[in-house]
Structure prediction request, 265 residues.
Amino acid sequence: MQPVPRLAIDDLHVAVRVDADRPGATSSVPIIKGISLAVAPGEIHVLMGPNGSGKSTLANALLANPAYEVTRGRILLDGDDITALAPDDRAKRGLFLGFQYPEEIPGVTILSFLRQAMSARKGFDMSVLEVRLGIMEWMKKLEVDDRFLKRYLNEGFSGGEKKRNEILQMAMLEPEMAVLDETDSGLDIDALRIVATGINSVREARPSMGVLLITHYHRILDHLTPDVVHVLVDGTIAATGGPDLARTLEREGYEAFRSPIEVSS
Prediction:
């Protein structure tokens, strides 16, 4: 009997609302045009695609960003339909999203943010001491200085520090499913290695956690070995296969995948 997928995306169609911040705006542009995939417990899936293919749109739809409208299809987490749930409800159920461009939140320390987020995830108030003790081991693995916890969330952070902070949050929140939106974006070689090592460490600590890694580039796959690779082109999955598919993509580019094909692993 096949296990229930951590994340199942079933014939998902997503449109971006135009002028979503303007009262009464109703027009929208379809971007995702029927995506289906299923991430089993413990699997890492990689979604690759060129600019404008719909990668960030998918991430925003999984986050329940109100500017992105699911017009058809379903999103299921551990078999439960979460399509209509708000972002905080999805997070409480164990869905984690690592942002491509993490927001700066002046005045809120990382320690305070993590305490609130962990308390919401676990369903009870955690003390500052409990949170601090839990964080210290992960900070060592991610090569983060102790003073990091006193800094305001992402304020003045380098690109590498922001991404390490995302992985630290993922480790502490213990999600069932992690969606990482271009976590490798803007990282130098050393920062990429640290972030990838952190992802692997979290997976070792939580072997049943599923991961959907959204990326432009093959280079992070030098440190992470995916179970499945999907190629997203023009809002649809044009190819699905194993790790060799990413190498084919790097060699041939995205134009080779404009017509839908299936590539065996």
